[in-house]
Every structure is written in C-alpha cells, then in structure tokens.
C-alpha cells in the first residue's frame, strides 16, 4: 500500500519533469497552486524517537569549488563572526562530458552538467558526514549567509528517522508538524539545498539511496528518495535571483547566458 509520502511523491513527479524542461520553480509552484511557503499542517500522530544534538557533537562541512577561493574566505570570516568552530571544506565538483569518472552516473541527458556536479558535491559531503568524528554535521553551500539570530550549536530535538533537516523553511511550500516535543517538521515539497543538518545514519541512508545515480537536480532528488524534514525558522539566507541568474556559478557553467563572465 502506498503511504502518504509515496503518494505525494508520485503526484509531484510531473512537476519535476517540467523543471527538467526549463520551467522555473516558481512557475511550477504556480501551476500546482501549491500552498504558500511557510504554510504547515498540524499533526496529532505519535512522536518518533528524538535525539538532541549536543554542541560538541556538531561539525560543519562547507561545499566550495576550487575556482571560488573568495567564497571560502567569506565563509571563514562569517564563522568567526558567529563564534562557530572551524569547518571542513568539501571540494565542489565541476562535472563535464569529458570529465570523470564520477562517483555515480548521470542518469538522463536532460540533467545539466552543473546540476549534476552540484549533486555529486552534495554526495561528497554526505560521505564526509558519514565518516566524520561528529555524530551530526551541518552542510552548507559557500554562497549561503548565516543569520545572526540563529543558534547553530543549540539545536532542537531531532527525529532520528529524518534523513536531512533543511535550514531554510521559507523555501518549503508544504510542511507538517511532527509532534509537540520538537519544532522540526516533515517537509513535502520545496526547493533549495543551501544548508541542512544530517546525522551519520541519515548521511549513510542518503548515500545508499543515491547509489544508482542522479536523474535530476539534488533539490529534486531528495523528495523522491529521502525523508526530508525542516526546521521551523530560517537559519540561513540566500540571494534571490530570477533564473537564469547572472550571479550564479551554476548558470555560468551551464552556459545559460551568452557572454556571461565567471561570477565571483
């Protein structure tokens, strides 16, 4: 019998196909008449097992391309300003037709090479989290902005069956309370992988479920293969830019704008 999550994922399969054909996330959102970002439902179901990460058990992984040392420097400065411990750099992946070999295959020709590379970089971060000395890791893309009111080392109780906990609920179109004992919510539909929390076990599950390869962007892949959860408040921000975005490395790598210089 197909559960609620499985049924919803089947319903959402067609919109992600539209994304692969070039529609923007906002266009797909409008076509679906999805609930506004920040909308959520209440839940009365029993609470799953919870685990509260302790500050000393949380590590940080920052995804960064070799071509972007200035972003790495900015992130290091931001960590100092927020009194956070040093992070481990995860080397980003610039995938190309003549590159490789890569950890897992690109399953469809419609998957743009920059999106495939981003997916491979997140897979690389999951592997770093799975072998980390820290039971929990916060994975961050190097263009994220840490928010001053967020406490990255004072985290709420986490349902242990969450594969990942997204840090930007303002980009989640539909979410649902899990139980009264935690502010963490189930997430059913949204976009963005700019920052999120994973446990070792959650990272291992995501690695296993990505072992066949990627057939879409990473922020589409997770909705079909993983138990996605979200914090109730934003922990990070990220610049908004209409696709194709002239400030995006992904746009430049995909060649979506003619004569576009490489962004900082």
From TrEMBL:
Species of provenance: Monosiga brevicollis
Limits of the Glycosyl transferase family domain: 60-149
Name this protein carries in UniProt: Glycosyl transferase family 25 domain-containing protein
Keyword tags: Signal
Lineage start: Eukaryota, Choanoflagellata, Craspedida, Salpingoecidae, Monosiga
Organism superkingdom: Eukaryota
Signal peptide positions (record): 1-30
InterPro entries in alphabetical order: Glyco_trans_25
